[in-house]
Amino acid sequence: MLIFHELLSMSxxxxxxxxxMATFEEGSLSDLAERQRKLLLSALxxxxxIGGSFEQLEAVVMRDESEIPRRVDLxxxxxxxxxxxxxxxxxxxxxxAAHNTLDRRRQETAALAVDLAG
Length: 118
Hints:
The chain is mainly alpha-helical. It contains 5 helices and no strands. It has helices at about 5-25, 30-50, 55-60, 70-90, 95-115. It is globular and about 55 Å long.
């Protein structure tokens, strides 16, 4: 059972991420096609970063997926579990990595805004 602090941490991250996207991504937050594209690119980059091969990827992509996709909440739950396992294997705190990424994006965006204004 998750304790309140763990739930709050994820909720805080999700709220920060959504606010950042809403502020700086000009409408792409609600663009499902853009969300799909970015998820796929991020997943592929992570896959390659942990040593995944093209042959493994090709085998998965070429599988016949005629079954009905599961609910989004179930798949997200499994994805979070896999991210936790990868975090364990690479000795990193996945929530800290996520917050660090948000902070870096916010700083990059602020610096870009200053450059454009200056």
